[in-house]
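Methods — Computational structure assignment.
A single polypeptide chain was analysed. Its primary sequence is given first, followed by the predicted tertiary structure written as structure tokens.
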Amino acid sequence: MWCVGTGNNLGRWLGSAWEDRGAQVLSLAFDTQGSIWCVGKKNNVGQWDGSGWDRRGQLADWELHKAARDGNTHRVPLIIGTNRDEGRLFTRGASFLPTDDQDQSEVAFPEGEQVFLGVDAEYRAALVQAYSEGHRGGDPVHMLGDSVFWGPAIAFAEGHSAAGNPTYVYRYDFDTKVLRASGMRATHATELFAVFGAYRTAIGAALAVGDWKTTGKMTRVMQGHWTTFARTGQPELQWTPYAAANRDTMVFDVHSRIVHDPYPQRREAWMRAHGLVPA
């Protein structure tokens, strides 16, 4: 099994030991012939043959949401979404975007407009304001989580749907008593317990204490949508497509429901920041 380690080192897991191959990569994928393709730390793409690195050039510097809007991505149905509390997982001594020469645990949690350093300065104040409703000084945990997850995802959904592709957007709000007590709530990757039925594994069962029935229900609901989408290209009927006219979003919770355009002020601020509407 080939893996990318925490230090971006490419290696192979042999079942009991890690064999480091030395290459520094960001991600890897396999093609239909089983060849390994990697993206290097300088955004260069190449093929790894097991012992050497065959660099093939640079990845295009695309803004994916604009590529989707312009019809330059695959015209396929899409499920895309994020979790309500994505950022909470990363408030425990970890950073989303560590620098090349700093360990994740050494990077301070950003504050205020620093959260949006990847956004042009002219849009940062509007983004902070959009997250300040009911939060003195803003809502830094959700600001940071959305800057990495929801902001880019909703921009891509806007572009993909505007190009005429069936697009289904979700927000995962479900949390268990254990997740609430821990302060994690519906944080990053917790939806995978329902999608893959992992609430009935050893680790998942610990998170499901006191919520056995509701975790079972959430698993059935999400697996129903995901498997129906895999077979037909659309989820079950109660999940309506996302479009500019309604921006329907499936909110997964104990009582899942469609919400029209959740967080409109935040969405508009992100669309401006991504150049999808005039400033």
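Note: The beta strands are 2-4, 9-13, 18-30, 36-40, 44-48, 53-58, 78-83, 167-172, 248-252, 257-260.
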